[in-house]
Amino acid sequence: MQADPHDTPVPYMRRTRDWYLALGFDNPYVWAHHPDVPFAPLGRPLTEMKLALITTAAPYRPDRGDQGPGSAYNAEAKFYQVYSGSVREDHDLRISHVAIDRDHTTMEDSGTWFPLPALREAEGRLFGSLAPRFHGLPTNRSVRHTLGVDAPEILARCREDGAEAAVFVPNCPVCHQSVTLVARHLEDQGIPTVIMGCAKDIVEHVGAPRFLFSDFPLGNSAGRPKDPASQAGTLALALRVLETAPAARTTVQNPQRWSEDARWKLDYSNVATRSDEDMARHRAKAHADREVARRIREAT
Question: How buried is residue 94: exposed, middle or buried, by Cβ count under 10 Å (0-12/13-18/19+)?
Answer without folding.
Answer: buried
